[in-house]
């Protein structure tokens, strides 16, 4: 009876200790490059005796809490990193990682602790090259860049950057082909050359990133003055037409004014020509008598006609006399004044007019 109680007590102790025990593993996922080293940390919160590590289906390492590592395969190592806690902590590392290591990495502690599993992915970084190299393109022309990738595992995520900014995915196309245990691919970027730019092709893996850089130089297109010239020429022609119309308008107006002035001048001339042209003879004019002698030059004296004398005698003021109207002798063909004097005999005459 006492023996049975002892067994039950021992079982309860063992069960109680197992319920409170915990095992943690960090990291739970890892991606590393082929040939590198990867490490996982196991932390135990209670007393334990045996710890084992499996990579894929293989048991690669065994650890006793009291003795340390007692069994391991090449490339697999472990070290105690405990800091005085009850359970302790161990670091498990895989050196020179191979693709065969890809898969689950399991840490197991015998007893009630159970196991924890992490995932390992082994990646392979290949080469990247922009085969088109630097380019010089005329402005607004199409530029094409070709990025070639070789020996990647798994196939990387490819993107293009323009001046450090991600390019639109519609500008490029990427394809991959499996070649043995790796992938080869090609990505082609087609873009419009607007300005100088830095062009980069980037291949991304969680464990590594490949980047290739080239440069795009844009040759500016000479300014097309055709449209500007056409616009300026159109406005110039329109302005000239307006000026020409204005000039024609003023010329016509000036011509009409001239014609009006000429018509008015002709009408005035005709009016003047239509007036009566009856003239008057100043009967106060008298030719001088001329005599000559041998002793001296000819001497002349003025003589009034009889009609003038009559007029003057009828006027109170001897200085004022009226000249009666007569027909023009020259128009009537006569050369004699009334009174019978022949004016053609005289070469010299004197004017005497009283007004």
Describe the structure.
The protein has 355 residues and is of the alpha+beta class. Helix content is 23%, strand content 40%. The chain contains 4 helices and 23 strands. Strands 2-10-9-4-5-6 form a 6-stranded mixed beta sheet, with no helix packed on it. A 5-stranded mixed beta sheet has the order 12-19-18-14-15, with no helix packed on it. β16 (172-179) and β17 form a beta hairpin. It is rod-shaped and about 160 Å long.
Features:
five-stranded mixed β-sheet, 4 helices, alpha+beta, disordered N terminus, 355 residues, six-stranded mixed β-sheet
What is the share of helical residues?
10-25%
Major sheet strand order: 2-10-9-4-5-6
| CA-based gyration radius | 69 Å
| Cα distance spanning the termini | 192 Å
Question: What is the overall pLDDT average?
Answer: 79
* Structure annotation, total helices: 4
Beta-strand segment tally: 23
Bulk shape: rod-shaped
């Amino acid at each position: 009876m006492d023996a049975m109680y002892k067994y039950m007590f021992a079982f309860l102790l063992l069960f109680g200790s197992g319920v409170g025990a915990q095992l943690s593993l960090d990291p739970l996922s890892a991606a590393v490059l082929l040939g590198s080293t990867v490490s996982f940390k196991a932390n135990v919160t209670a007393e334990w005796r045996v710890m084992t590590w499996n990579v894929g289906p293989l048991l690669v390492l065994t650890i006793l809490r009291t003795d340390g590592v007692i069994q391991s395969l090449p490339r697999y190592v472990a070290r105690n990193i405990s800091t005085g806690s009850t359970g302790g902590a161990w670091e498990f590392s895989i050196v020179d990682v191979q693709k065969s290591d890809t898969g689950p990495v399991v840490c197991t502690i015998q007893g009630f602790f159970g196991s924890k599993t992490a995932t390992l992915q082994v990646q392979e970084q290949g080469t990247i090259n922009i085969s088109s190299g630097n380019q010089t393109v005329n402005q607004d022309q199409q530029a094409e860049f070709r990025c070639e990738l070789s020996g990647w595992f798994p196939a990387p995520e490819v993107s293009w950057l323009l001046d450090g900014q991600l390019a639109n995915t519609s500008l490029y196309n990427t394809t991959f082909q499996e070649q043995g245990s790796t992938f080869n691919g090609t990505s082609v970027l087609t873009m419009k050359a607007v300005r100088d730019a830095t062009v980069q092709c980037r291949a991304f893996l969680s464990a590594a990133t490949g980047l290739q850089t080239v440069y795009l130089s844009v040759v500016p297109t000479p300014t097309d003055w055709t449209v500007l010239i056409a616009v300026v020429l159109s406005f110039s022609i329109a302005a000239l037409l307006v000026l020409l119309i204005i000039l024609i308008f003023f010329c016509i107006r000036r011509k009409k004014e001239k014609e009006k002035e000429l018509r008015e001048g002709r009408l005035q001339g005709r009016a003047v020509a239509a007036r009566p042209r009856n003239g008057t003879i100043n009967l106060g004019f008298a030719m001088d008598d001329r005599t000559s002698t041998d002793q001296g030059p000819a001497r002349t004296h003025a003589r009034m006609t009889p009609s003038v004398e009559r007029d003057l005698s009828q006027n109170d003021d001897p200085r004022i006399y009226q000249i009666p109207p007569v027909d023009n002798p020259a128009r009537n063909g006569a050369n004699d004044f009334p009174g019978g004097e022949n004016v053609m005999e005289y070469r010299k005459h004197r004017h005497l007019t009283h007004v």
